[in-house]
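From the methods appendix. Each design record in this collection lists the tokenized structure first, followed by the designed amino acid sequence. Records were kept in a plain field format so they could be parsed without special tools. The example shown here is representative of the layout used throughout.

RECORD:
FOLD TOKENS (64 positions):
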């Protein structure tokens, strides 16, 4: 259980660090991505970007 928490934490840190670079590519601004401001902080839920990245990565792994 502790391993999964570490993996999830590291994945979130990695995604947070890559967010500005991914936004330049257009990810995070697709029609299924939600952004809202709550308690003075901007939150984003990138549903469509997550599905797109998952599809691309699974195709890439399948070809390799």
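DESIGN:
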């Amino acid at each position: 259980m502790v391993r999964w928490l570490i993996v999830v934490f590291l994945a979130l840190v990695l995604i947070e660090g890559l967010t500005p670079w991914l936004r330049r590519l257009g990810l995070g601004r697709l029609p299924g991505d939600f952004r809202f401001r709550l308690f003075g902080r901007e939150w984003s839920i990138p549903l469509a970007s997550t599905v797109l990245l998952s599809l691309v990565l699974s195709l890439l792994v399948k070809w390799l």
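APPENDIX NOTE: The chain has a mean pLDDT of 86.
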